[in-house]
Sequence to fold (430 residues):
Amino acid sequence: RGEGVHIYDNQDRAYIDALAGLWCVNVGYGRAEIAEAIERQARTLPYYHAFASMGTEAPARLADRVKRMAPSNMSKVFFGLSGSDANDTQVKLVWYYNNLLGRPQKKKIIARHRAYHGVTVVAASLGGLPVLHNAFDLPLGPMLHTTTPHHYWNAPEGMSEADFSRQLAQDLDDLIQKEGPDTVAAFIAEPVMGAGGVIVPPENYFEEIQKVLKKHDVLLIADEVICGFGRLGKTFGSEVFGIEPDLMSVAKGITSGYVPLSACLVSEKVWQVLVEKSGALGVFGHGYTYSAHPVSCAAAMANLDILEREGLVEAAAKTGAYMQERLRAVFAGQPMVGEVRGVGMIAAVEFVQDPAGKKAFDPALKVAVRVADKALDHGLITRALPNSDAVGFSPPLMVSEAEIDQIVESLGLALNEVRDELVREKVAIA
Ligand code: PLP
Fold:
């Protein structure tokens, strides 16, 4: 069972869920109000589809509400059930859009190495993690990848964040020029890369990137699946970094994971092309049986009521700043800690063998996995992030400062135990 920020196991032992499930339980566990909204909708009208101009009340109200929360250029909302299917839908929208505009060759989508956008064939292709590609014959041809905006690992020694951002924009420009600007349709990015290692973009990154996208008439898809609905201390991550997306994917925090729901937000610019030109190509042949599911949308309405009534976006900014400060104060500069990073209510602590020499641990030592395992013994749920020797934090947004203190303390105990273990194994730790 779950209550607040806590999960209880089958022995009734409490754990602080410092990852909010999979970065999604933004309002915390045990919210009767959401359960009641689900029940009410299930009793009134459990299901009706959204095809052929049919529709039900809950998704209509939710679409209107989400649109009012989103950047002002967002015009329409398409509901799905997962972040993966939202990103799939975005790619189809982009391809359809360019076909309508008579640019059938403008189809390639650029993502970043280490990105995570889901696991369907298209979403995994957008992702930049080898585990999503190896043994699946992916990525698909039209999906390309550019440099990860990870200052700690990817910037040349001594380069400022701002200069690194200019270099990353140049990398993107070079890739678009090489492929041919008339073949590149869209760029997709998480405001903060989550599963790929909680990678916060360097200073001015999106400003520089957006100049390149505008120059080549390339659409921008913001994958707000983790960052949306308060995670970074603003309603959307795009607000934090000055991102002006043409399309936005959301999921997770829209229902706090109580039931599945995702959405593609479509800007007026893209929508107008669909409206004016789709007559020529025929109907947008897309939609799932469970698109705009009334039960999911009723849950989302109750979830957003809580988010607004309790001021959880503002709380995420305030308590998130405390979490960032505490993690840095306790762990930055310590042996085995390479970097403490994050913004708002998302953070990571990355482990290295030699912080001064920036020498990574041998991946076979699985340091982050061990730390996460030990943390569990101290009542803390965190997670070793794939492709990075780091553990991640994204607690429910109503976490208290006292609970943040417990997270930091448990992580410290776990880290000390792993350090002792490595010393016993004769691993040299600088
Ligand atoms: N996009 C991002 C940024 C995500 O973090 C995730 C999942 O973690 C997804 C997309 C995929 O969402 P789902 O697992 O609901 O398909």
Summary: Residues 22, 82-84, 87, 116-118, 190, 194-195, 223, 225-226, 251 surround pyridoxal-5'-phosphate (CB under 6 Å).
